[in-house]
Design goal:
The protein is of the alpha+beta class. The chain is built from three helices and three strands. It has helices at 3-16, 59-71, 96-101, and strands spanning 34-39, 44-49, 78-83.
Length: 105
């Protein structure tokens, strides 16, 4: 990945760390809800993500927040968010910061 694309990807991760599931006091990135971030050579972004539950009542809010924040990066041309439940999310996907925040360490 070239330096410009890496810079965009780093900005995306920073912004994703400001998106929270209203029911969980940890951001969606640290929770492991982001499966993949792809930035192509035209600065189009594809995010593959999930929710902690397929019945997540905050799904519309979270998706809107992700879309809005990534679109706010001036270099980004287009954002696609692909929602998947394969593999289903589980607690093992959380990073250490999330586990610590939730008192699991």
């Amino acid at each position: 990945m070239n330096e410009e694309l890496q810079k965009i990807q780093d900005q995306i991760v920073t912004l994703l760390r400001t998106v929270y599931d209203p029911e969980i006091p940890v951001n969606i990135y640290d929770l492991g809800m982001i499966y993949d971030i792809d930035v192509d050579e035209n600065n189009n972004v594809t995010i593959e993500m999930t929710f902690t539950s397929p019945a997540c009542p905050a799904s519309d809010f979270i998706l809107s927040d992700v879309q809005m924040k990534i679109e706010s990066i001036p270099e980004v041309n287009h954002v696609d968010i692909n929602l998947t439940f394969d593999p289903p999310w589980d607690q093992s996907m959380m990073n250490d910061e999330a586990r610590l925040e939730l008192g699991m360490m």
